[in-house]
Amino acid sequence: NTTYDWTVNQSCMYANSTVVAGQFTTAYIPCNIPLNLTTSNATANQVTVTWAPVNGAATYLLEYKKATATNWTNSILVYGTTSAIFGLTAATLYDVRLSCTCTNAAVSNYATTQFTTYTSTCMAYGVNGSEYIDQFTLGTINRLSGREVGGYLNTGLATTLVKGSTLTGQYSVGFNPGITFGENFAVYIDFNRNGTFTDAGERVVGPISISSGAVFNFNVSIPTNVSSGQTKMRVMISRTGTTVTPCMTGFKGEVEDYTVTISPNSNRIIESTNLSDLTETTAATTMQIYPNPSQGLFTIEIPESNEPLSYQVFSLNGNVVAEGKITDATHAELNLADLQNGLYMLIVTSETKTQHWTHRISIMH
């Protein structure tokens, strides 16, 4: 890839001829993009990267970063066609790219791929070439997705679950076009926070057997005797014929991890609000709310009330997220469509504050 000038003339006995001049350029020998960039042997903190050799390559530059990062701050200079990467963060999706410098000093474009590190305890991942989780909805979580890299993803998504509550969720499984398999679906919550999901009562759903890609409903009940605070939730699907366990690897299926916050029950929420001046309570069953769950539009009926009413909607941490007046207690329409998916506490109070009604409501868009 270099241009040269040349000249030639004839040397005679008494004089030289006129000079003839020209140019030529030597051929460009490209430094090709490395092919077959693959990862293997991933653990919680390391992975092996390999690729096919490039003809004329002198060195390779291997770079990696967390998928959520902007800058490529980690690099390794490699003279062969394989390299191990150490010191990685567990349960994290990474980007990796590779270029080579050839003996003619040319530099190739990048080959790219991704890899996932797994959890340090209770490692789990599936082989998801044919089936994968394509929808999971519970509380404020509503995730639609394709195949996860490495058959596993720590999603980073979170929701709050209330002690003593039962929530309805939805899930579905994606398949290759024209193919379906029987699948087992299960959900685990690490109530005691030891990282294993294998203790008694930590499997909160399933295994539920399904045989199509339709959307299915499930219920999650949170015991009243578990400790409050943040912990992990694991969602799994595996092809029928495999016994589902929360720490299995290499099965046909997929794994997704989420974060949940176990919250005190609704009575604790009521105690945290300014309701000390209410002298009389009416059972929540006398206030009818429907549909519940809904996408945010609720109908309220309180036939025995003859006073003007007001309402407040509390999030699970005790904050007021909506409030207003109810003009027709026999058939009031409440629009909370602007709120996020999740569980809330609705408190309706009479004008004289001699009566109040409480009811849990669930919003699922």
Short description:
Helices cover 2% and strands 49% of the residues.
What's the overall geometry? elongated
Radius of gyration using CA atoms only: 32 Å
N-to-C terminal Cα separation, in Å? 60 Å
Largest sheet, strands/sense/barrel: 6 strands, mixed
**Residue share in helices?**
under 10%
Instruction: Average the pLDDT over all residues and give the rounded result.
Output: 86
Order of helices and strands: EEEEEEEEEEEEEEEEEEEHEEEEEEE
Query: Beta fraction of the residues?
Result: over 45%
Count every beta strand, where a strand is a DSSP E run of 2 or more residues.
26
Helix segment count?
A: 1
Uncertain parts: 266-285
Class derived from helix and strand content: mainly beta
What does this structure look like?
The longest helix has 6 residues, at about 265-270. The protein is mainly beta and about 375 residues long. The chain is elongated. The protein has one helix at about 265-270, and strands at about 5-10, 20-25, 40, 45-50, 55-65, 75-80, 80-85, 95-100, 110-115, 125, 130-140, 140-145, 150-160, 165-175, 185-190, 205-210, 215-220, 230-240, 250-265, 290, 295-300, 310-315, 320-325, 330-335, 340-350, 355-365. Mean pLDDT is about 85; it is low at about 265-285. Strands 10, 13, 15, 16, 18 and 19 form a six-stranded mixed β-sheet that branches. A four-stranded antiparallel β-sheet has the order 6-5-8-9, with no helix packed on it. A four-stranded antiparallel β-sheet has the order 12-11-14-17, with no helix packed on it.
